[in-house]
Write a structure and sequence with these properties.
The protein has 391 residues and is of the alpha/beta class. 48% of the residues lie in helices and 13% in strands. Strand 9 and strand 10 form a beta hairpin. The structure holds 5,6-dihydroxy-NADP (NZQ) and zinc ion.
Amino acid sequence: MNNFNFYSPTYFSFGKDTENETGAYVKRFGGHKVLIHYGGGSVVRSGVLDRVKASLEKEGISYVLLGGAQPNPRSGLVYKGIELCKKENADFVLAVGGGSVIDSAKAIAAGVLYDGDFWDFYCGKSIENALPIGTILTIAAAGSEGSPDSVITYEEGMLKRGASGDAIRPKFSILNPALTQTLSSYQTACGITDIIAHLYERYLTNTKDVEVTDRLLEALLLTMIHEGPRVIANPDDYEARANIMWAGMIGHNNACGVGRSQDWNSHNIEHELSAMYDCAHGAGLAVTMPAVFTYVMRHNVMRFAQVAVRVWGCQMDFEHPEVTAEAGIKALRNFLNSIGMPKNFEELGAKEEDIPKLVDVLCNGNGRTGTISGFVELNEEDCINIYRLMV
Ligand code: NZQ
Ligand code: ZN
């Protein structure tokens, strides 16, 4: 196991009706004037936003509203949010929504305390300072409620890039699984796929002897395989949604990723798809993961065979471990298709003729010089081949 530091100071409040305590948590973490950030309106329609506002009012905390964060959140609204916070002297940013709203809120919170352009953070500068952030999560997916990361799309050139720093880990996150019951089954499945990807991308490691994190990741994958179909069959299954929601948080706050190298090439390759076609991140991953895994499988066949046996229940073929490894990838693909996720470029709305453009943006610029690193270092030709596997 590699040396590591792990700092995860987020306070979690989990369960039914917990959003009604938002005001008390903002107070506890020092907020007096809050920017409430939300998305395209789901939290207005569901009544969550009204409950959050009432909770702030009960504590005598004033607020200003900024809606409109889009899936694959954009830089334009971040600039607007930074200006609004400065004008209104907001000292706390509250995200009510999914990963996109939370990531946009994190970018605003970091940008307010920075003299330069907030996009510097998405070009490699580490985030050292940010206004305190709280979240009320409405979809189990990105894991941003417990992560030190934010992913934003820069509108000029549609560059989708991530930034990181412990300063943007939320001070508190409110996780009420019942709030996810208003999701469409497609969005629910996108979230399930993203969580599975976060587990797989950690599982694909070059570090030896990481039994504890391997086993944690396997347990979370098994949970997703068990609970995913249950919640797709019955969207009102609170217990299944509760298990998925907590798995999504543990899967991405890095408790099960510390001390080991990680992959993230499926995410990098997917981010170009959601940047270019504005598809849902989880849907993009459903198409990307099987292609990437098939392409890099021979780098460590036994790792793929291990997950195939331990998670997907495949028979180990000791003479031909690649057969077992392939069976595991096939089981993953079938599972994702069974919950309604797309299989290929066409179902995603992507076009084969765009592959050179996708690869160029993926492999060059923003610190990248022709390759992307992860479980296997991939050059432009590799990435072209991987995208072709998705057609
Ligand atoms: O905008 P509204 O109206 O709220 O609708 C959203 C949106 O259309 C809707 N939704 C959310 N909760 C709902 C709901 N609809 C009905 N009922 C509810 N309870 O769902 C749609 C998707 O929301 P979004 O926030 O985009 O989903 P998700 O949480 O999957 O976030 C995706 C973004 O997170 C990034 C992705 O790249 C993508 O941009 N990621 C962020 C990470 C991080 N910060 O650590 C890591 C991830 O790997 C990921 O890359
Ligand atoms: Zn993701």
